[in-house]
Amino acid sequence: MTRAEKNTKAIAAVAAQIGSTLLPDNDAWTNRFQVKSASSGSLYTIAQRRSDKVWGCSCRGWINYRKCKHLTDVLKRLAAVEASVAYDSDTLTMLASARKVYLDLGAAKGVAAPKVTGRELDF
């Protein structure tokens, strides 16, 4: 079995673990997962762009606003997958990327206003 076949099997196992199916890669996208919408019978594709490793979704929300519940849900499930030594380096890299992106999607933390010390200037 070639390295690419092993990678595909490992990522397919991850897809099955998160309740998704793996689609074949294409010229622009890799790590393509097919998910069913929770609110309708629609199927969406969550994937990672080859050029810059950005995750995306085929739904209108992501296409128009670069944010959607499908992508957040899949990244959350990928982030929860236990990264074991049984996975190859490409699969571990994909899981690490999903974990990082999912954590970055969290709500921004509030930043306290800086405390002004010294004299105030009156213009």
Instruction: Give the strand tally.
Output: 4
Please report which band the strand proportion falls in: under 5%, 5-15%, 15-25%, 25-35%, 35-45% or over 45%. 15-25%
Number of domains: 1
Backbone shape: globular
Rounded mean pLDDT is 80
Sheet of most strands: 4 strands, antiparallel
The multimeric state of the shown protein is: single chain
Sheet/helix structural class:
alpha+beta
State the end-to-end distance.
75 Å
Number of helices: 4
The Rg value, from CA coordinates, equals 19 Å
Task: Order the strands across the largest sheet as they lie in space.
Answer: 1-2-3-4
Fraction in helix:
25-40%
Q: Which ranges are low-confidence, i.e. pLDDT below 50, for 5 or more consecutive residues?
A: none
List the helices and strands in order: HEEEEHHH
Summarize the structure.
The chain has 123 residues and is of the alpha+beta class. The protein contains 4 helices and 4 strands; from the N terminus they run αββββααα.
List the helices and strands and how they pair.
Elements: H1 3-17, E1 21-23, E2 29-36, E3 43-49, E4 55-57, H2 60-65, H3 69-80, H4 89-104
Antiparallel strand pairs: 1-2, 2-3, 3-4
Helix pairs in contact: 3-4
Description:
This protein is an alpha+beta fold and 123 residues long. The protein is built from four helices and four strands, in the order H-E-E-E-E-H-H-H. It has helices at residues 3-17, 60-65, 69-80, 89-104; strands spanning 21-23, 29-36, 43-49, 55-57. A four-stranded antiparallel β-sheet has the order 1-2-3-4. A hairpin with a 5-residue loop joins strand 1 (21-23) and strand 2.
